[in-house]
Amino acid sequence: MFYKILITLIAMTMFSSATSKSTDTFVYICKSDGGKKFHLSKDCRGLKRCNHKIEKVSITRARNIGRTICGYEN
After folding, report:
1. pTM for this prediction
2. Does a structural domain hold residue 17?
3. pLDDT, tens digit, for every residue of 27-41?
4. Cα 71 from chain centroid?
């Protein structure tokens, strides 16, 4: 019985991980070397100072490259 529950929990976790990746949220980042934030909206006032390309990326990618959410959008 214990193993049946354990296998069910593992399967649910694997399905949940696969599902969350397919519905990833997209955010915007300024492609400058010093950029540290990501923005939920392309019109965020935090992006108005960006003099470089603004790129749409997944929130997972933004976090993986060390970006955190913009202070205007907390």
Report:
1. 0.67
2. no
3. 999 999 899 999 999
4. 16
